Amino acid sequence: MSPPPAFDPALDALVTPVLRADRHGRVVACNQAFARWLGVSQKRLPDQPLVALEAEGDGLRGALQALDEADGSRRLRRVALAFLGGEPRFADVWLTREADGGTLLEAHPVDEFPGEDPTRALPLALSAALKGLAHELRNPLAGLKGAAQLLGRRAGDADSRELVDLIATEVQRLTQLVDQLMSPAPPRPHQPLNIHGALEQVVRLAEQEAGWAVRLVRDYDPSLPPLRGDPDRLTQAVWNLVRNAIQAGAANVSLRTRAEFGVRIGEQVHALALRMEIVDDGRGVPEALAEQIFLPLVSGRADGSGLGLAMAQQVAREHGGSLGYRSRPGHTVFTLLLPLPDGDGDDPPPAADRAAKP
């Protein structure tokens, strides 16, 4: 079989897995060794977003963003790569920027059970369990959708219709999350959005769950420019944070937004960023969990899944941002930093946009 176009035939003869992506971050071709190692046909990889091959974490995205700012090469240890939800393969990865702006990825397979970095230790069994759970949720969600439609026809006042609309919106969002678990797909292209619209959706959810037991305080900066992102993913991430506060016994939860200038997020400095803070007066983060709070399956509650904060951190990374916290009993603050376009609108779109199809 001849190598795919735009790929040096000499590289196709190597026993080392090698892949090439174009300047937009899309796979152009790979050699036979890479295809065999990943367990996929050479013909199926072209046009896939390179970052979509990373099965866990977002090290590839960060490394690609940093290539132009360094010496044109980056090394990542124990990266989990997979094709469309297949079984992950682990490798030390070398990334090299080419003259035409493309990227050459060289993979050196390693032991699939690293045991070094707990943040990458989400078991394959958990992935299978989540897919099984997603499958079981399909029928109840369909039932809820039908019930909401029937209620919508009978709702006679504005308040009732608003509640029915909220149910329908949340059922649709949960259905999309289930679909993502069943059939993982590359991130959707980001779009301009008003972050306060997403926060208002979270406030409505919190009011329905907590009622009068929790006082919700809006402390918004109305001058913030539109954020580029995925509104559903951001709503889910913030709701996870607010719901954690409610379940920690908070009587007051504040949602605060501010513009911040000259912010460093990871290895990049952004001229303008959104600082979103979720502040509560609940019990705080247990000291025993302080170093592990963002790991999957770690929870301070006996009935907790330990997935909410891990998911929120992943959403922050998808948007080129970060999630951190500080906590003591009676005062916990989770801080979400997300880059914003500057006044001239010259900031590049997030990596998820550059990796997605136009």
Describe the overall structure.
The structure is a single chain. It contains nine helices and twelve strands. It is 35% helix and 24% strand. The chain has a five-stranded antiparallel β-sheet, covered by helices on one side. A hairpin with a 7-residue loop joins strand 3 and strand 4. It has 358 residues and is α+β, with helices and mostly antiparallel strands.
The computed structural class is alpha+beta
The biggest beta sheet reads: 5 strands, antiparallel
CATH architectural grouping of the largest domain: 2-Layer Sandwich
Residues in helices, as a percent range: 25-40%
Radius of gyration: 22 Å
Classified in CATH, the superfamily of the largest domain is Histidine kinase-like ATPase, C-terminal domain
Compute the average pLDDT: 78
- Annotation field: number of helices: 9
Residue runs with pLDDT of under 50 for 5 or more positions: 1-5, 112-125, 345-358
Give the tally of β-strands: 12
Principal-axis shape: globular
Please trace the helix and strand order, writing H or E for each element.
HEEHHEEEHHEHEEHEEHEEH
In order across it, which strands form the biggest sheet? 2-1-5-4-3
GO molecular function: ATP binding
Keywords: ATP-binding, Kinase, Nitrogen fixation, Nucleotide-binding, Phosphoprotein, Transferase, Two-component regulatory system
EC number: 2.7.13.3
InterPro entries: HATPase_C_sf, HATPase_dom, His_kinase_dom, HisK_dim/P_dom, HisK_dim/P_sf, PAS, PAS-like_dom_sf, PAS_4
